Amino acid sequence: MVEEKGVGESRVEMAQAMFPVDANPAGNVFGGTIMKLIDTAAGIAAHRHCRTNVVTASMDRLDFHQPVFVGELLLLRASINYVGKTSMEVGVRVEAENLMTGEVRHTNSAYLTIVSLDENRKPKPVPKIAPRTEDEKRRFKEGRDRAEQRTAWRQKRSK
Fold it and tell me: Using CA of residue 141, residue 44, residue 3, residue 126, what is the dihedral sign?
């Protein structure tokens, strides 16, 4: 039987300084650099939740709200929103902190679907999630709704 876990048990917070190698000549950090960090944070949260190897199946939503610049600190927060049988939705919020002024801006949000794998690299059931706070319950419901939309979209597309 797959046990149930609290959202906080797998929550991840990461910080990464942005350097010139992460950006274009104008000092704007590449979207791909941010995407890689989002995928890393989501993967760690998923790995902590199920304690198995995991792979990213999709990133169905990634919004860029504000640019990120060289010299800023990127802060990423990832948590499990919803789990299905062998996959889970991980939400990642990204903020940029100007280390000189202390200003923090919300720059990105993303939803990733991550699949748990067994030792033969086949999908493996994941522990259920136990949302406790009102925010966790809201995220669970919204994540379930998005999972249903993804399933409907895949079914429609395969016809």
Answer: positive
Using a cut of 0.85, tell me whether the model's pTM lies above it. Answer: yes
- The CA R_g of the chain, rounded to the nearest whole Å, is 17
CATH number of domain containing 40: 3.10.129.10
Bridging pattern class, strands 4-6 and 128-130:
parallel
Burial class (CB in 10 A: 0-12, 13-18, 19+), 110: buried
Domain extent at residue 27: 4-158
pLDDT digits (tens, 9 = 90+) for 97-120: 999 999 999 999 999 999 999 999
Among the listed residues 46, 37, 47, the one whose alpha carbon sits nearest the alpha carbon of residue 14: 37
